[in-house]
Design goal:
Elements lengths: L1 H13 L12 E4 L3 E5 L5 E7 L4 E7 L5 E8 L2 E9 L5 E7 L5 E7 L5 E6 L3 E2 L5 E3 L2 E7 L6 E10 L5 E7 L3 E7 L5 E10 L2 E10 L2
Antiparallel strand pairs: 1-2, 2-3, 3-4, 4-5, 5-6, 6-7, 7-8, 8-9, 10-12, 11-12, 12-15, 13-14, 13-16, 16-17
Amino acid sequence: MKMFLISIALTGFLFSCKNKENIDASNLKIENKYEINFCDKGDLSSLIIYIDDCNETVYRFFSNGMIDLVYSYCDSLMIGSAYSYYESGGLAFYGFFDKSGLLRYKRLYYEHGEVKEEEGVLIIVEYDEMILENDSLYIPIYIPHLPGSCVLAHAFLYDENENCLDTLVFHKHIINLKVNAKIVQSIELDVQMTVGEIIIKHGKTLFID
Protein backbone atom coordinates (compact mmCIF):
# COMPACT_ATOMS: atom_id res chain seq x y z
CA MET A 1 0.00 0.00 0.00
CA LYS A 2 2.81 2.39 0.91
CA MET A 3 4.59 1.89 -2.41
CA PHE A 4 1.29 2.24 -4.28
CA LEU A 5 0.88 5.69 -2.72
CA ILE A 6 4.49 6.55 -3.55
CA SER A 7 3.86 5.54 -7.15
CA ILE A 8 0.85 7.85 -7.34
CA ALA A 9 2.84 10.72 -5.84
CA LEU A 10 5.68 10.24 -8.33
CA THR A 11 3.49 9.79 -11.40
CA GLY A 12 2.76 13.47 -11.98
CA PHE A 13 6.37 14.46 -11.33
CA LEU A 14 7.85 11.83 -13.63
CA PHE A 15 5.26 11.76 -16.41
CA SER A 16 7.00 14.30 -18.62
CA CYS A 17 10.45 12.86 -17.82
CA LYS A 18 9.82 9.19 -18.48
CA ASN A 19 11.66 9.26 -21.80
CA LYS A 20 14.81 11.30 -22.32
CA GLU A 21 13.64 12.32 -25.80
CA ASN A 22 11.83 15.12 -23.98
CA ILE A 23 15.09 16.60 -22.66
CA ASP A 24 18.60 17.06 -23.96
CA ALA A 25 20.48 15.02 -21.32
CA SER A 26 20.93 11.48 -20.00
CA ASN A 27 20.39 12.80 -16.50
CA LEU A 28 18.78 15.91 -15.09
CA LYS A 29 19.37 17.77 -11.82
CA ILE A 30 16.72 20.17 -10.57
CA GLU A 31 17.90 22.82 -8.07
CA ASN A 32 20.11 20.19 -6.37
CA LYS A 33 16.93 18.62 -4.96
CA TYR A 34 16.23 15.93 -7.55
CA GLU A 35 18.29 13.93 -10.01
CA ILE A 36 16.60 11.95 -12.78
CA ASN A 37 18.60 9.33 -14.69
CA PHE A 38 17.79 7.39 -17.86
CA CYS A 39 19.12 4.18 -19.36
CA ASP A 40 20.61 3.93 -22.88
CA LYS A 41 17.21 3.15 -24.40
CA GLY A 42 15.76 6.32 -22.89
CA ASP A 43 13.60 4.73 -20.19
CA LEU A 44 13.58 6.13 -16.69
CA SER A 45 16.32 4.45 -14.64
CA SER A 46 16.38 6.20 -11.27
CA LEU A 47 15.22 9.17 -9.26
CA ILE A 48 17.33 10.59 -6.43
CA ILE A 49 15.79 12.98 -3.92
CA TYR A 50 18.31 15.07 -2.00
CA ILE A 51 16.81 15.74 1.44
CA ASP A 52 19.82 17.76 2.62
CA ASP A 53 23.61 17.79 2.17
CA CYS A 54 23.98 14.38 3.85
CA ASN A 55 20.71 12.52 3.23
CA GLU A 56 19.18 11.22 0.02
CA THR A 57 16.50 8.74 -1.04
CA VAL A 58 16.95 6.68 -4.20
CA TYR A 59 14.24 5.13 -6.39
CA ARG A 60 15.32 2.69 -9.10
CA PHE A 61 12.96 1.47 -11.80
CA PHE A 62 12.49 -1.53 -14.06
CA SER A 63 12.30 -0.87 -17.80
CA ASN A 64 8.50 -1.24 -17.59
CA GLY A 65 8.34 1.73 -15.19
CA MET A 66 7.65 -0.30 -12.04
CA ILE A 67 9.69 0.46 -8.93
CA ASP A 68 12.65 -1.88 -8.46
CA LEU A 69 14.45 -0.54 -5.36
CA VAL A 70 13.89 2.17 -2.74
CA TYR A 71 16.58 3.01 -0.19
CA SER A 72 18.08 5.94 1.72
CA TYR A 73 21.64 7.12 2.29
CA CYS A 74 23.22 9.25 4.99
CA ASP A 75 26.89 10.18 4.57
CA SER A 76 27.24 7.39 1.97
CA LEU A 77 25.79 4.77 4.36
CA MET A 78 22.53 2.96 3.65
CA ILE A 79 20.19 3.65 6.58
CA GLY A 80 16.58 3.09 7.59
CA SER A 81 14.09 1.09 5.54
CA ALA A 82 15.00 -0.41 2.16
CA TYR A 83 12.60 -2.07 -0.28
CA SER A 84 13.15 -4.33 -3.29
CA TYR A 85 10.32 -5.36 -5.63
CA TYR A 86 9.57 -7.95 -8.25
CA GLU A 87 9.02 -6.61 -11.74
CA SER A 88 5.36 -7.57 -11.34
CA GLY A 89 5.10 -5.11 -8.42
CA GLY A 90 5.14 -7.47 -5.43
CA LEU A 91 7.51 -6.87 -2.53
CA ALA A 92 10.62 -9.08 -2.70
CA PHE A 93 12.72 -7.75 0.18
CA TYR A 94 12.41 -5.43 3.15
CA GLY A 95 15.44 -4.46 5.21
CA PHE A 96 16.22 -2.04 8.02
CA PHE A 97 19.71 -0.56 8.38
CA ASP A 98 20.91 1.21 11.52
CA LYS A 99 22.84 4.50 11.57
CA SER A 100 26.15 2.70 11.01
CA GLY A 101 24.83 1.04 7.84
CA LEU A 102 24.45 -2.40 9.45
CA LEU A 103 21.50 -4.53 8.32
CA ARG A 104 19.58 -5.24 11.53
CA TYR A 105 16.38 -6.77 10.16
CA LYS A 106 15.36 -8.37 6.88
CA ARG A 107 12.35 -10.10 5.41
CA LEU A 108 12.25 -11.85 2.02
CA TYR A 109 9.07 -12.69 0.10
CA TYR A 110 8.07 -15.07 -2.65
CA GLU A 111 6.54 -13.36 -5.66
CA HIS A 112 3.03 -14.42 -4.62
CA GLY A 113 3.49 -12.62 -1.28
CA GLU A 114 4.29 -15.42 1.17
CA VAL A 115 7.20 -14.81 3.54
CA LYS A 116 10.30 -16.74 2.46
CA GLU A 117 12.76 -15.78 5.19
CA GLU A 118 12.95 -13.47 8.20
CA GLU A 119 15.95 -12.54 10.33
CA GLY A 120 16.98 -9.81 12.75
CA VAL A 121 15.58 -7.76 15.61
CA LEU A 122 12.63 -5.39 15.96
CA ILE A 123 14.21 -3.11 18.57
CA ILE A 124 17.21 -1.04 17.50
CA VAL A 125 18.71 1.30 20.09
CA GLU A 126 21.17 3.87 18.75
CA TYR A 127 23.48 4.19 21.75
CA ASP A 128 25.72 6.76 20.04
CA GLU A 129 22.73 9.10 19.73
CA MET A 130 21.83 9.03 23.43
CA ILE A 131 21.81 12.48 25.03
CA LEU A 132 22.11 13.26 28.74
CA GLU A 133 20.83 16.70 29.74
CA ASN A 134 20.95 17.35 33.48
CA ASP A 135 19.12 14.29 34.85
CA SER A 136 17.19 13.51 31.66
CA LEU A 137 18.42 10.75 29.37
CA TYR A 138 17.09 10.69 25.79
CA ILE A 139 17.21 7.25 24.16
CA PRO A 140 16.49 6.93 20.40
CA ILE A 141 14.74 3.67 19.55
CA TYR A 142 13.95 2.52 16.02
CA ILE A 143 11.51 -0.22 15.01
CA PRO A 144 11.58 -1.57 11.41
CA HIS A 145 8.60 -0.32 9.40
CA LEU A 146 7.32 -3.29 7.44
CA PRO A 147 4.78 -2.30 4.76
CA GLY A 148 1.27 -2.48 6.18
CA SER A 149 2.48 -3.04 9.74
CA CYS A 150 1.09 -1.69 13.01
CA VAL A 151 3.28 -1.34 16.10
CA LEU A 152 2.48 -1.54 19.79
CA ALA A 153 5.48 -0.84 22.04
CA HIS A 154 5.69 -0.82 25.85
CA ALA A 155 8.52 0.63 27.92
CA PHE A 156 8.55 -0.51 31.56
CA LEU A 157 10.73 1.70 33.79
CA TYR A 158 12.32 0.18 36.92
CA ASP A 159 14.27 1.62 39.84
CA GLU A 160 17.30 0.05 41.53
CA ASN A 161 15.03 -2.20 43.61
CA GLU A 162 13.27 -3.47 40.47
CA ASN A 163 10.08 -1.62 41.32
CA CYS A 164 8.11 -0.62 38.22
CA LEU A 165 7.94 3.18 38.23
CA ASP A 166 5.96 3.71 35.05
CA THR A 167 4.72 2.05 31.87
CA LEU A 168 4.87 3.99 28.61
CA VAL A 169 2.93 2.99 25.50
CA PHE A 170 3.85 3.90 21.91
CA HIS A 171 2.25 3.28 18.53
CA LYS A 172 5.08 4.48 16.31
CA HIS A 173 8.27 3.21 14.69
CA ILE A 174 10.60 5.96 15.93
CA ILE A 175 10.65 6.58 19.67
CA ASN A 176 12.68 9.21 21.50
CA LEU A 177 12.38 7.84 25.02
CA LYS A 178 13.02 10.29 27.87
CA VAL A 179 13.76 8.97 31.37
CA ASN A 180 15.11 10.34 34.64
CA ALA A 181 18.62 8.88 34.77
CA LYS A 182 18.89 9.39 38.54
CA ILE A 183 15.84 7.27 39.30
CA VAL A 184 15.42 4.80 36.43
CA GLN A 185 17.96 1.97 36.53
CA SER A 186 16.58 -0.35 33.86
CA ILE A 187 14.09 -0.32 31.00
CA GLU A 188 12.24 -3.32 29.66
CA LEU A 189 11.09 -2.87 26.06
CA ASP A 190 8.38 -5.04 24.53
CA VAL A 191 7.39 -4.61 20.89
CA GLN A 192 4.50 -6.26 19.09
CA MET A 193 4.24 -5.78 15.34
CA THR A 194 1.13 -6.84 13.46
CA VAL A 195 1.36 -7.48 9.71
CA GLY A 196 -1.97 -8.70 8.40
CA GLU A 197 -2.80 -11.74 10.53
CA ILE A 198 0.82 -12.27 11.64
CA ILE A 199 2.02 -11.01 15.03
CA ILE A 200 5.76 -10.64 15.70
CA LYS A 201 7.05 -10.02 19.23
CA HIS A 202 10.48 -8.93 20.46
CA GLY A 203 11.83 -7.81 23.82
CA LYS A 204 14.95 -6.02 25.05
CA THR A 205 16.25 -4.82 28.42
CA LEU A 206 18.40 -1.71 28.86
CA PHE A 207 20.46 -0.98 31.96
CA ILE A 208 21.34 2.58 32.92
CA ASP A 209 24.64 3.08 34.75
